[in-house]
Amino acid sequence: MAGEVDLDQVLRETLAAVAPGTELRDGLERILRGRTGALIVFGHDKTVEGLLSGGFALDVPFSPQELRELAKMDGALVIDSAATKILWANTQLVPDPTISTDETGTRHRTAERVAKQTNLPVISVSQSMQMIAIYVAGRRYVLEDSDTILSRANQALATLERYKQRFDEVSGTLTALEIEDLVSSRDVAAVAQRIEMVLRIAAEIRGYVIELGLDGRLLSLQLDELAAGVEDERELIVRDYIPGTGKRGRKLQTCLDALAALSAEDLLDFGLVAKALGHPAIDLELPLSPRGFRLLAKIPRLPGQVAERIVEHFGSLQKMLSAGIDDLQAVEGVGDNRARIVREGLSRLAESSILERYV
């Protein structure tokens, strides 16, 4: 893993490996309960080999009990990246002393330097502070007990529920405005903003789910229910309102990346959200017309490829809404039955959205 690596991905994988319910977490907690410390390199390659001094090679199957017993010795441990084998025990790690570190304790200083030099995770168990810290390159992450993580996760979940409710409201309003051809840049920005907020809170909760391991199963189910379809909705919004067509048109991924790059503060500014979508930031009353991807996605059993052809054929939602069954049948892949499904589906969506808006 030395060289160019995705440090966020390495941290997520490491947190998953030490989550409650795993053998590695069991071993680390045994060390804590035994009131001894430990320094564990999580992975092995030539770079790690060059940092080892003394100790003995084991190459034995990993078990929590074995880890606990070997940690009683003063030296460091090296395990494989899958936490299935203990490779070295009672060895000394000799990293480059010129590597900067903010830590003060000998074990933690060594852990941070080894992590930076190898780009491998290093786990430090502190006897005096009774804590487990993970070092991934220049980052330090302290493991917390499940109750503390669950408390924060439940607060985030409550926030997600409120944001999702607000997203459903603005999404419904946008549907009604689309039917009436009254959409402005502000309306689209409001929905895109809520989508981003929901997705960012969901990403935070997914981090808690990883940390919680088996203890996060219920949380994971609740998250899946609340966040279902939101990411697809973001892509559909962008495809409906992305400016231009053909080679001169703004690319879908460019818009998605621009939205993701907005800071939490920038996300509160509708002008900046509109700009990320490719529209002028200074004119939020600019009238916009959707292509129709979003509404077609709400029609059951309509394949994505067929929806693509319908949008390409008609060019806008308003033309779709005014199209008859014969007009729809002119689209490749749309026979009589499918044309009726599309026609009836759009009519139902139009009726229900207007009723919800005005009744």
UniProtKB/TrEMBL annotation:
Residue span, DAC domain: 8-146
Pfam families referenced in this protein's UniProt entry, alphabetically: DAC (PF02457), DisA-linker (PF10635)
Record flagged with keyword DNA-binding: yes
Reactions listed under catalytic activity: 2 ATP = 3',3'-c-di-AMP + 2 diphosphate
InterPro entries linked to this entry: DisA, DisA_sf, DNA_integrity_DisA_N_sf, DNA_integrity_scan_DisA_link, DNA_integrity_scan_DisA_N, DNA_integrity_scanning_protein, RuvA_2-like
Cofactors required: Mg(2+)
SUPFAM superfamilies in the record: RuvA domain 2-like, YojJ-like
One term of GO molecular function: DNA binding
Keywords: ATP-binding, DNA damage, DNA repair, DNA-binding, Magnesium, Nucleotide-binding, Nucleotidyltransferase, Transferase
GO biological process, one term: DNA repair
UniProt xrefs under HAMAP family: DisA
Name of the molecule in the record: Unannotated protein
Annotated organism of origin: freshwater metagenome
